[in-house]
Specification:
By secondary structure, this protein is mainly α. It has one domain. The protein contains three helices and no strands. The longest helix has 7 residues. The N and C termini lie far apart (39 Å). This is 15 kDa selenoprotein.
Length: 45
C-alpha cells in the first residue's frame, strides 16, 4: 500500500520512497471488487 511508503522516513529510508511510490497500490484500489481464481465452499452442520 502506498501509505507504507509514508513510513520510510521513520526508518531513515527516504531514498527508497520514489521506488516505493512507483510500485505501490493505492488503498482505494483495494476497496473495489476483488477477483479470485477459485474458492472452496464448505457447508458445516
Amino acid at each position: 500500500l502506498c501509505s507504507s511508503c509514508d513510513l520510510l522516513g521513520q526508518f531513515n529510508l527516504l531514498q527508497l520512497e520514489p521506488v516505493c511510490r512507483g510500485c505501490c497500490q493505492e488503498e482505494a484500489q483495494f476497496e473495489t471488487k476483488k477477483l479470485y481464481a477459485g474458492a472452496i465452499l464448505e457447508v458445516c452442520g
